[in-house]
Amino acid sequence: MKAMRVATILIFCMILLSSLPRMKAQQMKTCKIRLHLPNCYTGKCRDLCKDEIGGRLYYFGSDCAKGEPNICVCKLDCTNPPQQ
User: Fold this and answer.
1) 3-state SS assignment for residue 55
2) Helix and strand tally (H, E) in the chain?
3) pTM of the predicted model, to two decimals?
4) Which of 3, 25, 32, 46 lies at 20 to 30 Å from 52 by C-alpha?
5) What is the CA radius of gyration of the chain?
6) Helices (DSSP H) in the chain: which residue ranges?
7) CB-based contact 57:81 (threshold 8 Å)
8) Which tens digits make up the pLDDT trace of 1-53?
9) What whole-number distance in Å separates Cα of residue 13 and Cα of residue 21?
10) Would you list the domain boundaries of the chain?
11) 39, 47 in Cβ contact below 8 A?
12) Residue 40 CB coordination number (10 Å)
């Protein structure tokens, strides 16, 4: 009975360890780029980010900086930066 329990725990640990590299690869590293935008509002900020970033990095959001009416913040996925 005890041997069966130990075997089950061992198998569970092996499965957990084998899935660890995949879990680590899925963690996203985020970057933020601050751009000057007079009288920032969300729609214009989003358009500015898309124009500025282009296809270089994966863009996933934008918003005006809190307390700074002239700053637009672009949020990017920098997990795998492009090779140059």
Assistant:
1) coil
2) 2, 3
3) 0.55
4) 25
5) 22
6) 2-25, 42-53
7) yes
8) 788 887 788 787 677 666 655 555 556 677 888 999 999 988 898 888 888 77
9) 14
10) 2-77
11) no
12) 20
Find tokens 């918003």 and name the residue.
63
Amino acid (one-letter) located at 55: G
Pairing of strands 58-64, 71-77: antiparallel
Give CA–CA dist 84/78, Å, rounded.
14
- The count of other CB atoms within 10 Å of the CB of residue 78 is 13
State how far the alpha carbon of 71 is from the alpha carbons of 32, 39, 65, 77, in Å. Answer: 12, 8, 6, 20
CB atoms within 10 A of CB 28: 11
Angle at 28 between CA 22 and CA 29, to 5 degrees: 130
Angle at 80 between CA 74 and CA 84, to 5 degrees: 95
Distance from first CA to last CA of the chain, Å, rounded? 59
